[in-house]
Amino acid sequence: MESNEQSDLVGQAQKLIAVFNHWPSFHDAQVLWACLDREDCSLRLKIYVFESTKTTTRDTDESGYFRIIKECYVILRFQKIENFVLEEFNHQNVIAGLIFKKDSEIRVEVEPIFGVYGSWSCRSIEIEDVQSCKPACAPAGTPSLGLVS
To answer: How do beta strands 124-132 and 10-11 pair?
Structure first.
C-alpha cells in the first residue's frame, strides 16, 4: 500500500502530513512508548519520526552524516485492537516501517530494524497528537544515519 493510501486509513492524518508535506515512511523511526488501555481496548504509541537528506538531497554535515531536515513526535491511537503481538521492546526500538492494510479491519505491522516489532488488527487509527521537536531532538541512543560512501 502506498504511503498516501496508508494516510487514508488514519484519522487526523493531516496533522502529520503538515510536518513532512507528505505521509512519512516511518523508516528508522523509534517507538518511544506503548500504552495499552483495557477499558476501550486501545493502544497508543509514541514514535519519533524524521526525514533526512538521505531521501532528498543526500546533503551531509562536516562529518559526512546525513542531516535531519524534519522531525517530530507523533502519538497514534489504535482503537479496538485484537490479535495483539508486540515483541522485543528495548532501549531503542528502531523500526523499518509502520504498515497499515485494510481488510474487514485494519491490519497493522511494525517492521523491525532493532528492537520492537509486532502486529495486530484494529477498527480505527487516529493521530492523537503531533509534538514538534527542536532541532536535533532525536532520543538518546539514536544511531547516526551513516556516512555517505
So the answer is: parallel
Q: Dihedral sign, CA of 55, 139, 107, 77?
A: negative
Residue 113 in grid coordinates = 530494524
pLDDT at 148 over 70: no
Closest CA to 46 of 136, 137, 129, 135: 129
pTM: 0.86
| Distant-in-sequence, close-in-space partners of 104: CB < 8 Å, separation ≥ 6 | none
Q: Which three cell numbers stand for residue 34?
A: 506503548
Backbone angles phi, psi at 142, to 5 degrees: -70, 130
C-alpha grid cell, residue 149: 560512501
Measured distance CA(99)–CA(112) in Å, rounded: 11
